[in-house]
Amino acid sequence: MPTRAARPLTLRDVSEASGVSEMTVSRVLRNRGDVSEATRQKVLEAAKRLGYVPNKIAGALASQRVNLVAVIIPSLSNMVFPEVMTGISDVLEESPLQPVVGVTHYRPEREEAVLYEMLSWRPSGVIIAGLEHSEAAHAMLANAGIPIVEIMDVDGEPVDSMVGISHRRAGAMMAAEIAKAGYRHIGFMGTKMPLDHRARKRFEGLTEALAKQGIEMSDQEFYSGGSSLAKGREMTAAMLKRSPDLDFLYYSNDMIAAGGLLHCLDAGIDIPGQIGLAGFNGIELLDGMPQQLATMDACRREVGRKAAEIIFKCSEANEPNAGERIELTPKLSFGDTLKRR
């Protein structure tokens, strides 16, 4: 595991790495002064390699910290993350700390840009979704000198602390119930990978566990863009048309699973006798469906609470990192779409 910096990087670090004076580094990073293009590139490359982020409030505050917590998530339209934000707010609302949200749209280059801007204001901590980041984003996180909490996933090595569930184990848990119920011809529908790392890990956990039971994935389809009931209906209709002998459909999230359920009910398919279905996330909004989906709760609000508690504790103790590893256990709900044996 790479060693994290005990303090934020400074102009001197960039100066030493690029072989030019601190004054020249300052001119380049502020885009001021007469500096040759070769020197400018040398400084910018060194800054990016180190993960250096300029301090926009240096000199304005003695502590060089503001009471903001940067929360970086992939989407606001995905109903998962508002619940995470609720958990964070529950903890921070009685503290001096305030969450500030940045959205990445699952794009690594966008995550870099959001992280760069947020770190430039020297927040008291960062809560960021996922464990996978670009090299530049990882360098910024590792050298920020503040507590970092990566959330939603524990299948990997964090920069500092992590809070979430094992998506590989979640996929394996679902596979065990599918096999136990007697389903043998499985179809999978989910978001396009590898950008959705957590869906990818659930898929890997599912397929590996099914393989141990002698069951291979019969069909699969991946889509781009947002998740919706219409998307679930469309994909399910297409998959059942080309693979009519499928007896179970597993979806990477509840929204497209709900669309799949509506298609099956309209087509007069017996659920869960003829075909079983399951989603993921345990979205309460879908409680009014004609049948309750089999699903798994990702402990969203608890993830937010635990992450905020780590940041608050470090802020109170003036500690740059905590190194905590918190794995929560998702709960499986059979609903009405997964047979019990």
Structure description:
With 341 residues, the chain is α/β, with parallel strands linked by helices. Helices cover 40% and strands 17% of the residues. The chain is built from eleven helices and twelve strands. Helix 4 links the parallel strand 1 and strand 2. Helix 9 crosses helix 10. The longest helix is centred in the C-terminal third of the chain and has 18 residues. The chain starts with 10 loop residues before the first helix and ends in an 8-residue tail after the last strand. The mean pLDDT is 92.
**How many beta-strand elements?**
12
The stretches of 5 or more residues where confidence is low (pLDDT under 50) are none
Please state the structural category: alpha/beta
Task: Please give the alpha-carbon distance between the first and last residues.
Answer: 44 Å
| Order of strands across the main sheet | 2-1-3-4-5-11
The major sheet is characterized as: 6 strands, parallel
Q: How much of the polypeptide forms β-strand, as a percent range?
A: 15-25%
Q: Calculate Rg over CA atoms.
A: 23 Å
| Number of H/I helices | 11
